[in-house]
Write a structure and sequence with these properties.
The chain is α+β, with helices and mostly antiparallel strands and 156 residues long. It contains two helices and five strands. It has one domain: Alpha-Beta Plaits. The longest helix has 18 residues.
Length: 156
């Protein structure tokens, strides 16, 4: 069995791979190598920081904080595009990012795994000028969910 976090990340990848319009690349989960210029545009999904918060304070005389913890995981959707004669790389990335935002919003609570839809927190654009000029745009989403205390594989 996998953790609820892993199931949510996998569901996000699936949402981004389903019904993508022309020009939106198939998402790759946690790419560890940089794609070559001939592999662009590229879409990568990976998880970042996760925070855990107790649902209540421990009862007097016990260390237990209850059977449920609230979790929040940051999910990054990264788009890498190159400059083309007909279009700037950030403009090409923007179209893909707009589709990704809508796709993750439409995923709702990821089949009941999350407490609600993904919250978009922001987007960072970075540029690299070289033989082939690139734009790396990374969107960050927060997904909140809850699990049993000490058991990240069980929903509440």
């Amino acid at each position: 069995m996998s953790t609820i976090r892993e199931q949510i990340v996998s569901a996000a990848v699936l949402a981004l791979a389903t019904g993508a319009p022309t020009g939106v690349p198939t998402p790759v989960r946690t790419r560890l190598d940089s794609p070559g210029a001939d592999q662009l545009p590229a879409l990568t999904v990976y998880q970042g920081v996760e925070t855990v918060e107790s649902m209540r304070d421990a009862k007097t005389g016990t260390s237990s904080r209850g059977p449920i913890v609230r979790r929040s995981v940051l999910l990054s959707v990264e788009v890498l595009t190159k400059a083309e004669a007909s279009e700037e790389p950030d403009k090409a990335a923007d179209m893909i990012l707009a589709w990704a935002t809508g796709s993750l919003a439409a995923a709702g609570s990821f089949g009941g795994l999350a407490n609600g839809p993904a919250d978009e927190l922001g987007t960072k654009f970075e540029y690299e000028q070289s033989e082939t000029s690139f734009c790396r745009a990374t969107q960050t989403f927060r997904i909140e969910y809850q699990t049993r205390t000490g058991d990240a594989e069980s929903l509440t």
